[in-house]
What does this fold into?
Amino acid sequence: MSQPFTESTVLSNGVKMPWLGLGVWKVKDDGEVERTVASALELGYRSIDTAAAYNNEEGVGAAIRNSGLARDEIFVTTKIWNANQGYDTTLAAFEESRRKLGLDEIDLLLIHWPVKGKYTETWRALEKLYKDGAVRAIGVSNFQIHHLKDIEASGEIKPMVNQVEYHPLLSQTELRAYCESNGIQLEAWSPLMQGNLDQSALADIGAKYGKSAAQIVLRWDLQNKVVTIPKSTNPARMQENAAIFDFELTADDMAQIDGLNRNQRFGPDPDNFNF
It folds into this structure.
């Protein structure tokens, strides 16, 4: 069996990004996030996804420092929050994230949401940070095709990653095809549909391989070439989420899971959000 945590995609600029990481949305910075990230790193996870808006960058940074791992062994993602968008405010917000994380260099910096009238200026700030060597890769989150086209028209560098809500009930086929043809790595948040895994197709396919519905979904992500960051604070669940590299879904399995799509979101709509 291949080592799951070293399996990586290569972004358009040559930077390696692990296929599987840990998301820490809603994990509190009261010791919980530090314990969670420490457990994940101990299990072998090497990619951690946080954001300024999660209010837990300090705990993430502390766990990384205390892990004893070399900095270049861990891929760290954070995001610029909506209230800080715009050119100068983004640069200041980045410095704040860097200070809280206690890291000189961030592996991946994303724009959290496409705030109307602001995201192209925010992108210009990300381009500057990238050119200055403060970040190894830059990207966006929750961007639709038209948002990506705006950035392409006004910017100099294409986003390397687009992190979006992606799962069998929201398979984002057009967006995935657009990203793939433009060298933008798609990444899934809420890959496990916030626990709404009770689909008989997932149970049936899982029974065939001796895998859980969650493992089937995460394997489907992988085979669709989508980076995935399931969130968990439970070490046993983290281990289960990583046990997806020792089997392969057939074309029929994949088609069956594709057939579950209902364009159903559990999170906000990127074209209609108000925060």
About this structure: The two ends are 44 Å apart (CA to CA). The CA atoms of residues 93 and 195 lie 32 Å apart.
